[in-house]
Amino acid sequence: MLPLQPLNIQAAGQVPATTITIEKTNGLSIKMETPNLIVRTMQEEDILPMQALFQRVENLTHYADGKPRDPQWTNRRCRGWMDRWADGNPFSGMAIYNKQDEFVGYFVLGYGDHPETEEENAPGFSEAALMIEYYHWNKGYCKEILKAAKETLIPSLKQFELSGAPLESVVFTTSPHNMYMVRACDALDLKPWKTLEPNEGSNRWDEQKYIYWVHV
């Protein structure tokens, strides 16, 4: 796969498809705006909707073991991401809202395992995850977020190090039954690099997984 390129500058007077703002004051914050969504640094106000997100079984059909998460588990995860932002670390969780200020879900570029050697928290390797509230499905949000991540967010993070090395690759892992993710990846020309059978290698779950490997 060819190296990703930053989003092209739009013609004068034309609304850009995606914009991104990175601020390095008092830690780090990122805000990315797409035609229909705002994806930004996780904040205190996002914890309650995140807890609800992880409690609804409809949202968890293809997430890990499919079981709802305790609110305290979600609270710890959100606060861990917030601590990373405060430390200037962009490989963390982001909240997603639509232009009507409705909570949509979350996106994270976190620490990842090397897709070949399976080294944990491999230098320069990030794993992406995305979850959207089930009542926001069928709106094109999944494809919109992945497109913005591929074309804008990921290239913007090349200036940062991950586990002691510059960002090199991003891994997307999903169930082949998660048709929203699979269709979005196909539409963006991200083909499965590898298929892991249940409980094979880094796949700890009782379900087959597709791995999409994006070189930065």
Short description:
With 216 residues, this protein is of the alpha+beta class. It contains 4 helices and 11 strands, in the order E-E-E-H-H-E-E-E-H-E-E-E-H-E-E.
Can you describe what's shown?
The chain has 216 residues and is of the alpha+beta class. It has a single domain, classed as Gcn5-related N-acetyltransferase (GNAT) (Aminopeptidase), CATH 3.40.630. The protein has 4 helices and 11 strands, in the order βββααβββαβββαββ. The protein has helices spanning 47-53, 71-86, 141-156, 179-187; strands at residues 19-23, 29-33, 37-41, 93-98, 103-111, 125-132, 161-162, 165-166, 169-174, 194-196, 209-215. The strands form 2 sheets. The protein has a 9-stranded mixed beta sheet with strand order 1-2-3-4-5-6-9-11-10, sandwiched between helices. A two-stranded antiparallel sheet has the order 7-8. A hairpin with a 5-residue loop joins strand 1 and strand 2. Mean pLDDT is 85; it is low at 1-15.
Count of DSSP strands: 11
The helix/strand order is EEEHHEEEHEEEHEE
The CATH class: Alpha Beta
CATH architecture title:
3-Layer(aba) Sandwich
Overall shape: it is: globular
CATH level-four homologous superfamily name: Gcn5-related N-acetyltransferase (GNAT)
What is the helix tally?
4
Q: What level of helicity do the residues show?
A: 10-25%
Give unreliable regions as ranges: 1-15
Structural class: alpha+beta
The pLDDT mean sits at: 85
Could you tell me the CATH topology label.
Aminopeptidase
Radius of gyration: 17 Å
**How much β-strand is present in the residues?**
25-35%
Our measurement of the CA-to-CA distance between the termini, rounded to an integer number of angstroms, reads 10 Å
Strand order of the largest sheet: 1-2-3-4-5-6-9-11-10
Number of domain units: 1
Biggest sheet descriptor: 9 strands, mixed
